[in-house]
Amino acid sequence: MRSISTKLILAFLSIGITSLVVIFITARWNTRTEFIRFLADQNQTQVISELSDYYSENNSWIGAEFIFNRRNDRHPPGQGPNRAPPFTLTDENGIVILSNEKYKKGDRVFEKDLNLGEPILHEDKVIGILVPQGVPFEGNQRELEFIDRTNLSLLYGVLIGAVIALLLGIFLSRTLTRPIRELTHATHAVSEGDLTQRVSIRSNDELGELGKAFNKMSAELSRSVNARKQMTADIAHELRTPLSLILGHAEAVHDGVLPPTKENFEIIREEAVRLEHLVDDLRTLSLADAGELPISVRSVEPERLLKEVAMLYQIRTQKKNIKLELDIAAPLPPLEVDTGRMTQVLTNILENALRHTPENGLIILSAKQVGEKVELAIQDSGPGLPPDEVERIFERFYRADSSRQRDNGGAGLGLAIAKSIVQAHNGQLSAESDPGKGLKVKILLSASSVRNL
């Protein structure tokens, strides 16, 4: 199978040779034609001059055939020896004075031939017309040698051009296929597991766009693989903690190290519940990734949704001495959402806010209309986050405070689940924060549209 480089070389060479052959044939024909025309014009000018001088000397055309015969003896340009003259001499009315192979003396020259003639003047008066006759070119030796040398030069030019076309074809094909070869090499490397492959972008054309797309794909693939590895490690770690506690307490009770009291069984039960919640969270994320998260839509007022969530956290906020406020702009259009799923979103965000809001702090649940959409927001008065960490809080198992213990901070899936549910409602989840000024998480939802999954 021929490579694309070979195909390009053959294509360039074929185009170049074809163009050169056409140029050679055209130039060869035009050179011959123009040279013959030049000789004919030169010959005609000389004949007219000699005929004009002859008439001036003799005041008559009697014996003028002497001029044609004399030129014939010299092998005049454009004709060989012993040929009839390539001209016809007529008077001013087109009557033949000197005959040739086509016309006899006294004949009237055809109008179309007469129009090609050149008048002969004497004292500003037309005394005759020299009419050229089309005869085959039979030049003398020097003229034929000139045409042959010219044709040979053109042939050499064509051969040199073909060699240049071949060299240019090789250079251009290698230049054009270089990005393709690099992409092929990088693709093979990626298929073998090397996700660090990148290709150089040398142009802004289609090949450059292809290279950019490959680099983006490779980067995304690398990020995805690393994220999966990290998620697998995090899942293993999250599962290991409750399992270790369950197994440890169960074996201790079984071996008699710990008494089978209600407190010890409660620890086992709590860790089992925690493990169940973790598995449920992972299942929710898995369904969202697969596009199979069930959504049951109904109409709900934003004010009612926020008030119900606030009631769920009224006691917990009071215990932590945190003030929970509602800021709802009225009137607001109803939302077409799955109330259970959206409640899960709000509670996950509130759980995160409660963990980071200090005692005597403030959490505000707000709702307002933004264009044709409704924005739900939860603002806390915690320490806030630097800009480089704000967007990462929606990543799975991500914790802004890496030193926080998992038993105090959860598994790090709450905001990731919230983002998946909001996206399932064709919504947007974002966050904004300044260090020391708390974190604000915003949910932007359409008032009437939802993606059915």
Intertermini distance = 48 Å
Question: Major sheet, described briefly?
Answer: 5 strands, mixed
**CATH fold category name of the largest domain:** Heat Shock Protein 90
Write down the overall geometry.
elongated
Provide key terms for this protein.
11 strands, Helix Hairpins, 5-stranded mixed sheet, Heat Shock Protein 90, alpha+beta, 3 domains, 14% strand, 4-stranded antiparallel sheet, 12 helices, 453 residues
Concise account of the structure shown:
This protein is α+β, with helices and mostly antiparallel strands and 453 residues long. The protein has helices at residues 4-58, 65-73, 111-114, 141-191, 206-254, 262-289, 302-312, 314-319, 339-356, 387-390, 406-409, 414-424, and strands at residues 87-90, 96-98, 118-122, 125-132, 298-300, 323-328, 335-337, 362-370, 373-380, 428-433, 439-446.
Indicate the topology.
Blueprint: H1 4-58, H2 65-73, E1 87-90, E2 96-98, H3 111-114, E3 118-122, E4 125-132, H4 141-191, H5 206-254, H6 262-289, E5 298-300, H7 302-312, H8 314-319, E6 323-328, E7 335-337, H9 339-356, E8 362-370, E9 373-380, H10 387-390, H11 406-409, H12 414-424, E10 428-433, E11 439-446
Parallel strand pairs: 6-8
Antiparallel strand pairs: 1-2, 1-4, 3-4, 5-7, 8-9, 9-11, 10-11
Helix pairs in contact: 1-4, 4-5, 5-6, 6-12, 9-12
